[in-house]
Design brief:
Number of helices: 13
Helix content: 55-70%
Strand order of the largest sheet: 2-1-6-5-4-3-7
CATH class of the largest domain: Alpha Beta
Number of strands: 7
CATH topology of the largest domain: Nuclear Transport Factor 2, Chain: A
CATH architecture of the largest domain: Roll
Largest sheet: 7 strands, mixed
Number of domains: 2
Order of helices and strands: HHHHHHHHHHEEHHEEEEHE
Strand content: 5-15%
Amino acid sequence: MVARFAADRAHLTAVAYRLLGSAAEADDALQEAWLRARQADIGAVENLTGWLTTVVTRVCLNLLRARRNRREEFLDAHETPSGPGAEAAAESGDPAREALLADEVGVALLVVLDTLGPAERVAFVLHDLFAVPFDEIAPLIEKTPAATRQLASRARRRVQGRPAAPAADAGRRRRAVEAFLAATRGGDFTALVALLDPDVVLHADALAVPAPAPVTVRGAETVARGAMAATARARFTGPALLDGRFGLVMAPYGRLRLFLVFTFGADARITRIEVVAEPERLRGTEIAVLDTAP
């Protein structure tokens, strides 16, 4: 068991991270799974990797259900799930590692997964990301294979979202958003200014700044300087489709905090950026994963 668990640790961590969206929580799930595995009689187990995957999934499913209950309690108390202390356990890990894993998996995918119910998330992650058959997933979530297939299909539609809004220069717009993120992460002021229209306008709601009132700034250099101040945030930011438009989502530890929607001019330079953190707008916007770039 020690040797098998060690050999499968990378796989089990990948499963737990995609189910939970947090490296710290994934580590906790693996620790709990290891404690359960040590106490189990594995003499008749033929596929130890599959058995360990099941144990990890059950632990993660319990954590997802507990998290959902906590969020319902926050809503009942008229608070937001992202309020002070709500995600303290998840945010106690290594920020650099969390950011690296989020980038590898895709920030937008983590955001969409976080909107799914526990059973939907398990069905989609295990089947679509790890090719586990539905008849093996079904007992974990106490559903029939047919119902499990439907859950995965519904989750898949959420992940894919609506297609990007038709535009002759859609490829250039997407590349501009990705270049904006890369320049922000890299602190490349010159590259940022080149992506922006000279008269670009940035509007941020009060919760995004934060400030007593919404903030509006104008001009390429002014907007670029503001982006330079958000380099730390950019580590947890990734491209996404927002109601079919190209944009960026910022989601530390897999929890959506804000998004940026871009408007483009005829030359595909950015003419307007809207930064949104108001909970109602976050909940009311369809966020989807970008197709793999050709």
